[in-house]
UniProtKB/TrEMBL annotation:
PROSITE patterns recorded: ABC_TM1
Entry GO MF terms: ABC-type sulfate transporter activity
Signal peptide positions on this chain: none
Name of the protein this chain belongs to: ABC transmembrane type-1 domain-containing protein
Transmembrane segments: 31-57, 79-106
PANTHER family per record: SULFATE TRANSPORT SYSTEM PERMEASE PROTEIN (PTHR30406), SULFATE TRANSPORT SYSTEM PERMEASE PROTEIN CYST (PTHR30406:SF8)
Alphabetical list of InterPro entries matching this protein: MetI-like, MetI-like_sf, Sulph_transpt2
Lipid bilayer topology: Multi-pass membrane protein
Domain ABC transmembrane type-1: 80-132
GO cellular component assignments: plasma membrane
SUPFAM superfamilies: MetI-like
Compartments where found: Membrane
Keyword set, alphabetical order: Membrane, Sulfate transport, Transmembrane, Transmembrane helix, Transport
Amino acid sequence: MTMISRSYKDRLKQFQIRLIEYLSKPTITKLWYSFIVLFFLSLILLPTIFVLIYVVFEFATIQSVILASSIYRTQILEALIYSISVSIIITLVDLVFGLPIAWILVRKEFRFKSILNSIIDLPLAVPTAGLG
């Protein structure tokens, strides 16, 4: 019984070694990396392309429903102005506070440097959409 299980383990180990050698070939690795890049690009690009195609081919419907009403037009204009003003203010705040903090983190050594660095990186780790 141990002879059978030992030969099975040996065959399994040989199979694993051959599989790893095959998957480690440069062509297989390049194909795998290409697949990963194409997959993630499709996650980003396909919804955008879908929306653009819909807007181009269904613009008459969009214009008649949304843009023809003066109420919607004023709301859209107000939202656009509000969005641009918020982005300008946030950019200025980031420049005023972000550059000095980045300079301090790179140039100086102090006690709570890792904590400050973690606090600064927190908005990148927790997306604003997840916070509500």
